[in-house]
Amino acid sequence: MTVQIRTLDDKMRIPEGAQSTLQTQEYMINMGPQHPIAHGSLRLLLKMDGETVKEVIPVPGYIHRGVEKMGEHMTPMMFTHLTDRTDYLSSLMGNWGISKAIEKAAGIEVSDRVNYIRTIMAELMRLQSHALWWGVLGIDLGAFTAFLYGLREREVISEIFEETIGCRLTMNYIVPGGVLADIHPNFVKRTKDLLPYMRQKIDEYDELLSGNIILQERLRNIGILSAEQAKSMGATGPVLRGSGVPLDLRATDPYGVYDKVDFNVPVGSIGDCWDRYYVRLEEMRESIKIIEQLIDNIPEGKIQAMKISGRIKIPPGTYYDQIETARGIMGVFMVWEGKKTEPYRIHLRSPNYNNLWLATLLAKDWRVADLISIQSTLDLVIPELDR
Prior knowledge:
Helix content is about 45%, strand content about 10%. It has helices at about 10, 65-70, 75-85, 90-105, 110-140, 145-165, 185-210, 215-220, 225-230, 235-240, 250, 275-295, 350-355, 360, 370-380, 380-385; strands spanning about 25-30, 45-50, 50-60, 175, 180, 315-325, 330-335, 345-350.
């Protein structure tokens, strides 16, 4: 077998004759790394024929920080705060992912109270993340009002987080063995008040944007991703479920207290931008249902299984665990050797990284305006794929 290595310079060389039957000239343009649709510092190199996208070449790495390498020199408790700085819109889920992996490796059992709090917090975060995504998709496609409404709902949920956690974005709250602080006395009441409010607002989202003929034209039958393609590319989360694959770890491999609640896993039919859009709206309604079943039943108990400053002993070996974030499956792979309190190797499996490369498949032969719809419905958070 021979392997051909091509550099970015090779890819940027335009052939003498365009692939189109028209007498046009292909050209290369950059979308990013400073571009509103990039949703962060992501460069997309586009080979264009007129307004038709012939090839998409993602160029990540502009904000790479070496998070995983730093993790080799940190104890589990020290590393946890870095996970909320990767996918900052799923920060609590990132905390939970590493904590869950550490607890599995070390044999740490957390109380039912901790599991209830973690599950409720994660679903509030999913609601917040999807509301912001809806608003950002709106402004990506020209609906500025949607962006203001999405930020409005995000602010309401941020205030609930801030009261208990003290932070509004990179929330370092879930840690190995439990949570850093008990819920605020107002938490249950404010959360219960939020649920009917959010249910009404999601109906407003449908009225304002979902039925809009312009949005329908921009999303329906655009960027179709089949179930087979989604699975072969390692897609997860709403992107995979939008293609009709009902894989959701909360249902297929329950953790926390997801096995104690009833909820549906929304899926799409053909895997176009519209399916990915509506799956997320339906997931918001399901998150409300999950929280409703839990919020009045939080049991008493300890919020920490050990001292926060305590050393966590993990036997030598290789460990893997995973969690369902707002964007898909975040996996945590760890290798521990000897009696060291820091891992020999730690790797985060990013849902955003796999979903990014779908753009190379979906955007080919669509207009550049359609690429905006495709990338927006992938819901990428760049600091996680760059890490």
